[in-house]
Structure to design on (478 residues):
């Protein structure tokens, strides 16, 4: 008859069931709850539980191994520390590192237990063995192995789909936490979104898109937004359009009429006076030696100016379903393509527009362009399929587990490799219960049993004793 809520202490606490008296609903939610490949935020979960049931009479019961954080010590909290196992070996990182002409795979393994172990490690590429070793690890030791792998088989450039070259590492152990004995990533992942270039020929930009790690790229001169469907980012290069629909845009030397940065004429030879070196779009970008012959005179009423001279030269906007990065000049009217700032700016800009999927970790939520579609199927690493709907032309996808996610829409498929959320997630040795007053209570006090039933039982026993004495006969018979 009591109202009960259920909170999952994930990386971001989740209310599985709001306060209810429906016990079947609570049991069902517990059955469907899934682990996350990241350390949970126990303190935030307790705060959320306290908000669901405020007041001194509410009780919060916490079940945890307390392996990474203790049970919060509060008068309303009762902790139950679970688990006895402490020995665990897990893969804490698997990724592919590239340079100009080669690729290397990096696998990091940690022994979270106290005892020394020898662990077989096997790495396959699309089920074909590519590396094997036996690692000797002392208690608490981390070992990293690096070995070369050949680049992915899929060609880069226009029309290319996201890679499907799967690299999997597996430990030959049987311990208390099997979930971290396997890790999966993509050898030829496409961290940048699919791109449609709209406008006249632009050789520097076209050449860059051929070698950039975009999911796919194409070009058109069609300025009808209906023809742009199916691409994550649309590049509007020196084309005049009407109002643009919700979506993601890289815009050069033009401003659609529904963006709050109307242009009024142009500047001749504007110089870069300042730029925001802390913004992700301008990470490692240096405009110091870049020269522009002509640029639009922008007057933004919202968004943020990333680089400016006499007026904004690079402007970012994200509102009303439109995310746009505007360059006030054409590439042909500058020497930007001859500087290292050019590929950095385009790559950073596409990453920001496309959701920045280059370094995803479990426990995060990624926002992906819907590319004009309304529904997507998210295939999780374990094969489970979750349907999501677009909101403001964006899919919001939660990433609880490490591995490869596949986002399937009517426009195509995009693969996202997701790393383990934290390298301490495999620590399973149970910790301590709450510190402070809660820890000093005798074990029976934590149960919070009411006292009045014991007084009633004592009274009944006394009454029975009185009746027995009053009715017994001589000789002892009652």
């Amino acid at each position: 008859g009591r109202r009960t809520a259920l909170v999952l202490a994930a990386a971001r606490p989740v209310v599985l069931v709001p306060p209810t008296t429906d016990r079947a609903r609570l049991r069902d939610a517990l059955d469907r709850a899934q682990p996350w490949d990241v350390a949970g935020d126990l303190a935030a979960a307790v705060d959320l539980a306290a908000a669901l049931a405020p007041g001194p009479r509410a009780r919060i019961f916490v079940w945890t191994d307390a392996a990474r954080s203790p049970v919060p010590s509060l008068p309303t909290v009762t902790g139950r520390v679970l688990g006895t196992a402490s020995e665990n070996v897990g893969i804490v990182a698997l990724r592919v590192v590239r340079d100009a002409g080669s690729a290397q795979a990096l696998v990091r393994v940690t022994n979270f237990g106290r005892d020394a172990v020898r662990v077989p490690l096997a790495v396959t590429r699309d089920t074909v063995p590519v590396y094997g070793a036996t690692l000797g690890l002392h208690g608490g030791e981390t070992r990293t192995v690096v070995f070369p792998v050949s680049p992915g088989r899929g060609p880069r450039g226009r029309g290319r789909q996201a890679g499907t070259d799967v690299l999997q590492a597996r430990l030959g152990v049987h311990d208390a936490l099997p979930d971290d004995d396997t890790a999966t990533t993509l050898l030829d992942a496409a961290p940048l979104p699919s791109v449609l270039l709209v406008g006249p020929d632009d050789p520097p930009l076209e050449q860059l898109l051929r070698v950039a790690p975009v999911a796919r790229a194409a070009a058109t001169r069609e300025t009808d937004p209906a023809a742009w469907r199916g691409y994550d980012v649309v590049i509007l290069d020196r084309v005049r359009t009407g109002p643009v629909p919700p979506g993601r845009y890289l815009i050069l030397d033009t401003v659609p009429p529904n963006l709050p940065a109307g242009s009024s004429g142009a500047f001749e030879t504007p110089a870069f006076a300042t730029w925001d070196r802390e913004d992700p779009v301008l990470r490692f970008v240096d405009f110091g030696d870049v020269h522009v012959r002509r640029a639009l005179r922008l007057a933004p009423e919202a968004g943020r100016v990333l680089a400016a001279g006499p007026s904004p030269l690079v402007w970012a906007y994200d509102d009303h379903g439109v995310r746009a990065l505007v360059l006030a000049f054409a590439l042909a009217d500058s020497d930007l393509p001859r500087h290292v700032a050019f590929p950095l700016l385009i790559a950073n800009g596409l990453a920001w527009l496309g959701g920045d999927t280059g370094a995803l970790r479990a426990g995060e939520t990624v926002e992906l362009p819907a590319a004009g579609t309304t529904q997507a199927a998210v295939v999780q690493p374990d094969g489970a399929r979750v349907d999501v709907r677009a909101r403001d032309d964006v899919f919001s996808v939660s990433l609880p587990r490490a591995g490869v996610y596949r986002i399937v829409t009517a426009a195509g498929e995009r693969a996202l490799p997701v790393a383990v959320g934290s390298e301490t997630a495999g620590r399973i040795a149970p910790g301590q219960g709450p510190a402070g007053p809660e820890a000093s209570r005798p074990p029976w006090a934590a149960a919070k049993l009411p006292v009045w039933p014991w007084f009633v039982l004592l009274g009944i026993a006394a009454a029975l004793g009185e009746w027995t004495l009053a009715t017994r006969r001589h000789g002892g018979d009652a």
Remarks:
- The two ends are 43 Å apart (CA to CA).
